[in-house]
Amino acid sequence: MHVFEPLNRVLFLVLNGTPATPHWLVFAGIFIANDLIWLAPAMLVYLWLTGNGLRRELAVRACCVGFLALGINQLIGMAWYHPRPFVIGLGHAFLAHAPDSSFPSDHVTLLSSLAFTFLLGGERRLGLLALIADLAVAWARVFVGVHFPFDMIGAALVACLAYGLVRPCWNMAGLAATGMLIALYRKLLALPIRRRWLRP
Fold this sequence. Notes:
By secondary structure, the protein is mainly α. The chain has helices at 5-15, 23-35, 39-50, 53-79, 106-120, 124-143, 149-188, 190-194.
């Protein structure tokens, strides 16, 4: 990684905002970096509430991939600390953040996990939406000064790894796990389902 660090820093300075950046762009960058991540749970809830068994199975699989990927990120962070740009005084930070390890980005890891799972699972429109959000957040997290560009590449690779690890396990137990969750959902929300406020 140290071999690529000069390139990582150069790319960061190219993408990072400056005090001369228009205020509207800084505001947009902060919003995307901070708040667009809420699209992830919204997409999962939408897929569950509007879908049949197959779409619900895909939502559960995407959750598993996302949680595993975030767990891998935690292990990477414990094994190897990579300082964030503002910690080493590089560029400009427009967003307050803890000085924990920057590599890889949790935000982009989660969105990449959903994008890959949706696209490979046949949900192309939702997968494309997740991918667009993923790319936007990747740009914004660098723009506001809390991540390096290579943190985003690492996040995508971790998401790919998590998907590859989940897939064989999912082929063995995924449908059964989804069936149990659907049964629990129907039991806990029996009243709104009976009144047709929710799909069974």
